Design the sequence.
């Protein structure tokens, strides 16, 4: 994906949640936490792409922490009618086995829409590992 951004001279930055200390919670200002800096980077972007593996049929706990913290921004919608993410473009990238990717896409898409983000047509990328595909009885006979 980064290669495609470069082709079109789109400035991008890959921000790995795992490189930051972000505690569970639904508020921005937690003690000894990197969430405030992480949030500022997200708010500075024009395009937000969340990437997650399928982890036992659901998104990773790291992405869930981002969702929980961004929920505080959703409170701004109730007060002001819009938030700083409104009308930014969002996308989803999921890797893993086939179990759960539709569920994850639905969860994240619903959350993005609730935050006022725009998801373009074909705004999701699903990369499934064929090595984990189940073998049917017909394939075993060959």
Sequence:
């Amino acid at each position: 994906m980064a290669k495609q951004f470069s082709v079109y001279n789109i400035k991008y930055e890959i921000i790995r949640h795992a490189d930051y200390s972000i505690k569970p919670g639904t508020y921005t200002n937690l003690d000894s936490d990197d969430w405030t800096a992480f949030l500022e980077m997200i708010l500075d972007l024009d395009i937000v792409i969340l990437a997650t593996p399928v982890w036992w049929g659901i998104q990773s706990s790291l992405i869930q922490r981002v969702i929980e913290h961004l929920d505080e921004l959703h409170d701004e919608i109730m007060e002001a009618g819009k938030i700083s993410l409104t009308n930014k473009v969002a996308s989803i990238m999921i890797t893993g086995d086939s179990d759960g990717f539709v569920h994850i896409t639905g969860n994240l898409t619903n959350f993005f829409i609730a935050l006022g983000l725009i998801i373009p047509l074909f705004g999701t990328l699903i990369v499934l590992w064929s090595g984990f595909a189940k073998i049917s009885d017909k394939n075993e006979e060959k």
Notes: The mean pLDDT is 79. The CA atoms of residues 15 and 41 lie 8 Å apart.
